[in-house]
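Progress report, Aim 2. The chain analyzed during this reporting quarter is listed below.
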Amino acid sequence: MIERIFVRLGDTAVGQYLASSTAAFATVESLHIVALAVIGGVILAANLTVVGWILRGSKASAVIDQLRGLFLGSLVVVALSGVLLVAAGPYKYYTNPLFPLKLLLLAMPLGIHFVLQKRLRTRRDVDTGARVLAFGSLFLWSGVVIAGRWLGLI
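Predicted structure tokens for the chain:
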């Protein structure tokens, strides 16, 4: 079932084009990396504010709210460009054991980020639970970056 999805992605016109065009693939990959970098910056700013290491005069919930559009927009770009990258080389990703690990590592801190947002909206102040979530998010995002980099090497 999953293999068929990967194969179908590779059989699309866009997948075929990206597989045959180094420039087009490099452009999509660059967009993917830049959008990931923006997400990383948002996550760093949000989580380091929650733990009190930066922007100490700002409310953590306000910082996260102000960065929400940038975060969500970059997340859309990462998702779309990621699908395109898989379409360009479906078996490379389907057979790579790091690919599902990267997706899992990506899903976990995304979930934490949304839980943290909700927690900060419903509580007046940052508490220990929010700080634990922020540290966990930072740790898991580091794993996403490492797995993504290794994915390109294997």
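The first helix runs from residue 2 to 11. The CA atoms of residues 46 and 66 lie 10 Å apart. These observations will guide the mutagenesis work planned for the next reporting period.
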